[in-house]
Specification:
alpha+beta, four-stranded antiparallel β-sheet, about 45% helix, Nucleotidyltransferase, domain 5, about 625 residues, 23 strands, single chain
Length: about 625
């Protein structure tokens, strides 16, 4: 099949980082500086609009167009050059890299594969000089830019040819993802702008509280002094929670744990709460949504990065970061919105703190167009279903789901030796923590961490009983984890041979440890090594330090292997559903949101609950709602 390899360099008064590629490509000031391209294995050549006609051979091309982060090239063709290549012609080599569990960055994927670990900063310098106002343009700089662009085409072509190509199904799923990106989702811009104003006013109040409570010792929670101030005033249990890799941490997870720890004095909790409020990501998200919204139709586009999740192929979110939206949602978002856009007081009517109110309005800031509604569906306990199904020995667990029983109550009944109908609310909550914490070989530590999220704080001996209780009730689990570990280790010791654990098959090709999913999709642990203390692999999501000699490596263990294959299969179910649906505007791991003028919840439920042929015997269920604003 013929291939056209292309890379653009452009400039614009529109800021690409803050406004996003869709706004950038449509901005009146955006223009192409040069286009470097090559057909198949031919030499790379460059077109410059200043002194050349656009090449007819490119304009009339009907085959696949290979680009790194191909949405950029596609939109430049469409909006700047007014050349309407079909979306299905574009093949994204960044997606190809991610599908092979490598970094998506062109520079990083080369270093990941063993090229020089040194970064070439000249390209970034050229872009700052020539592509960002005030533009600097000289013949020497232009010659250097052309050389840089041509080298990117050569690098992209070489890297793509060295990687496993996308399967036809993966490429089709990438195109589905791009259709969703092009459709975008409507943003309530007035609500976002009101939220930004409330956050700015709250900042002043927070800083005043911090200074008052700390008696002037801390003037800002952003100060490094805050970590030490907290450390000096908490007990041993809290200090244990703050220690991460021999360093004192006050990150989001630590703050949540400290706020639920008995060994933290109330004044210290107030400072921690102030820090949590100040660093609330929801505030930044409102700003980002407002900036990314199209000036004409106020839709945010390009939110989803196909195969962005390492080792699973799950999509990640860019710009709007919808995958990280809090699940907290206002009880009456219309009333809160009415108050916010008019500048009325929202505390204490709608929440104890302004940041709480804002968190609850983040999801409702996404709305359907006039005359349309959202149909929102999420799979019920999808990972808890996929995991035992993958084991090939978890039929008892699958029967619980097939019968529509409450799996959390079943866990609790087995743990506390009571009838399901006699399980109390508190016992059911423990059953929920058991299910969420223990499925991927989680032990007491995982149970304790998940318990803090759901306000289940138990002494270690009792927590251990809860873990043991879940494992007794799920007799498929421990053998499956052990089988995964045994078979991927055997694969590492027997190059070129396949070894199967449940419904997963491993193969080591001498460089990468591959695993095949029931759908036929393959993923890998790149550059895997069998070492004395286990298996290690290059972790694409980890960035190397400036003085690093090789890419950072991670350890493979049975719990991680189980989590990876379970989430990957859940993603295959999502991909299968998205192929069949029209009007999708959002997809968040186990959730799909459709915008439509004719809501049909049962059709969405049918699609999501009908497993593909490769998932025969997997019982699926989905909760479906019609909404006028995005919620939970």
């Amino acid at each position: 099949m013929p291939a056209l390899w292309i890379d653009f360099e452009s400039r614009s008064n529109c800021d690409l980082r803050s406004k996003g590629v869709y706004n950038y490509a449509q901005h009146a000031s955006t223009e192409v500086l040069c286009m470097s391209y090559a057909f198949d294995d031919e030499d790379v050549v460059t077109w410059t609009p200043a002194d050349q006609l656009f090449p007819a051979r490119v304009r009339s091309y009907t085959g696949l167009i290979y680009s790194h982060n191909a949405a950029f090239e596609r939109l430049i063709f469409w909006y700047v050059l007014q050349i309407n290549f079909k979306l299905e012609q574009f093949y994204c080599t960044a997606t190809q890299a991610r599908a092979n569990c490598a970094p998506g960055s062109l520079e990083d994927v080369g270093r990941f594969a063993g090229a020089s670990m040194k970064k070439d900063h000249r390209g970034a310098a050229l872009i700052r000089l020539m592509c960002v106002p005030p533009f600097k343009h000289t013949p020497d700089l232009m010659a250097e830019m052309i050389s840089y662009c041509e080298q990117d085409v050569r690098a992209m072509r070489a890297i793509s040819k060295g990687l496993r190509p996308l399967s036809d199904e993966e490429l089709a799923d990438y195109h589905v993802n791009e259709q969703i990106n092009d459709r975008g989702v409507l943003v309530d811009v007035p609500l976002c702008k009101a939220a930004i104003k409330y956050a700015a006013a709250e900042l002043v109040e927070i800083e005043a509280i911090v200074q008052e409570v700390s008696e002037g010792a801390i003037v800002s929670v952003r100060s490094p002094k805050m970590r030490q101030w907290v450390w000096d005033r908490v007990g041993e249990e809290a200090r244990t929670l703050m220690q991460k890799d021999d360093k004192i941490s006050i990150d989001k997870t630590v703050r949540a744990n400290l706020l639920n720890c008995d060994g933290v004095p109330e004044d210290v909790k107030e400072i921690i709460q102030c820090a949590d409020d100040l660093w609330a990501s929801s505030v930044a998200k409102f700003s980002r949504l407002a900036a990314l919204a199209d000036d004409e139709d106020e839709r945010v586009r390009g939110a989803f990065v196909f195969a962005g999740g390492a080792a699973t192929g799950r999509a990640s979110s860019y710009g709007a970061q919808v995958h990280n939206f809090t699940r907290k949602c206002a009880g009456d978002p219309s009333a809160v919105r009415h108050a916010m856009v008019r500048g009325h007081a929202v505390v204490p009517r709608f929440g104890e703190r302004v940041t709480d109110v804002l968190k609850g309005m983040l999801r409702p800031a996404l709305i359907p167009a006039h005359g349309r509604s959202f149909v929102v569906a999420d799979w019920s306990s999808i990972e808890a279903r996929v995991n035992p199904w993958l084991s090939g020995r978890g039929q008892d667990k699958l029967d619980i789901f097939a019968k529509g029983q409450d799996v959390y109550k079943v866990n609790a009944a087995a743990t506390f030796n009571v009838q399901i109908e006699d399980v109390t609310d508190d016992q059911r909550q423990i059953g929920k923590v058991q299910e969420l914490a223990c499925g991927f070989a989680g032990g007491v530590g995982a149970f304790a961490a998940m318990g803090r999220v759901y306000k289940v704080n138990l002494p270690e001996p009792i927590a251990r009983r809860m873990v043991d209780g879940w494992r007794r009730a799920n007799t498929w689990a421990v053998p499956f984890w052990s089988e995964l570990e045994e078979q991927y280790t055997r694969a590492m010791r027997n190059k070129g041979r396949e070894f199967t654990a449940g419904r997963i098959t491993y193969l080591f090709d001498g460089q990468h440890l591959w695993y095949a999913l029931p759908s036929g999709r393959v993923l890998c642990y790149p550059f895997a090594k069998l070492e004395q203390d286990g298996i290690s692999y290059a972790k694409s999501a980890w960035k190397p330090a400036q003085d690093a000699k090789e890419w950072p490596r991670a350890r493979l263990w049975k719990g991680l292997a189980c989590e990876n294959v379970t989430q990957a299969v859940a993603n295959d179910l999502l991909r299968h559903a998205l192929r069949q649906l029209d009007g999708v505007v959002l997809h968040i791991h186990d959730e799909i949101v459709i915008e439509t003028a004719t809501p049909n919840p049962e059709e969405l439920r049918r699609v999501m609950c009908t497993p593909p042929a490769w998932a025969n015997g997997l019982p699926l269920a989905a909760d479906v709602k019609v909404m006028e604003r995005y919620g939970k």
